[in-house]
Design a protein that fits this description.
Blueprint (H helix, E strand, L loop, with lengths): L18 E5 L3 E7 L19 H18 L8 E11 L8 E11 L3 E10 L2 E12 L2
Antiparallel strand pairs: 1-2, 2-4, 3-6, 4-5, 5-6
Length: 137
């Protein structure tokens, strides 16, 4: 079992974080490389193999959740996405690209988690977003 699978309930093909590089309450850094053989490219610019924006967004949200779990604030809490704000897609990336995600925790309590983050492909910003998750269990 991969370490990331101990931090998130998602599994292949819906697990979009390969590793958490570092995690503190203030900042979480994670990485993901998008597998170019995965089915989500079929029908989504199939000749370009561009990673869908919704997958990029899910990746950064999963990164934030995995980091919070890794630092031990909650014991196996299940979170649901409640809202997205300030979402800005700044570019696209192709399959086999590695994305670095930097997530800042804005507010955390027993019932909610608010984070903001930026995703990079190399030096290039590809996504910025803020989200709120509510604790389900």
């Amino acid at each position: 079992m991969k370490v990331i699978e101990t931090l998130l309930p998602q599994r292949y093909p819906f697990l979009f974080v390969d590793e958490i590089v570092s995690a503190t309450l203030d900042e979480i850094i994670g990485l993901n490389t998008y597998d170019n053989s995965f089915r989500y490219y079929q029908g989504h610019f199939p000749e370009e193999e561009i990673v869908p924006n919704v997958i990029l967004l899910e990746s950064i949200i999963q990164c934030g959740g995995a980091g919070i779990t890794q630092i031990g604030i909650f014991e196996k809490a299940l979170w649901g996405l409640a809202s997205l704000t300030n979402v800005k897609f700044c570019g696209s990336i192709k399959a086999s690209s590695t994305v670095e995600m930097i997530v800042k925790t804005l507010k955390v309590s027993n019932k909610l988690l608010k984070q903001t983050g930026t995703a990079f492909c190399g030096e290039r910003v590809i996504l910025k977003a803020t989200w709120l998750c509510l604790r389900l269990t």
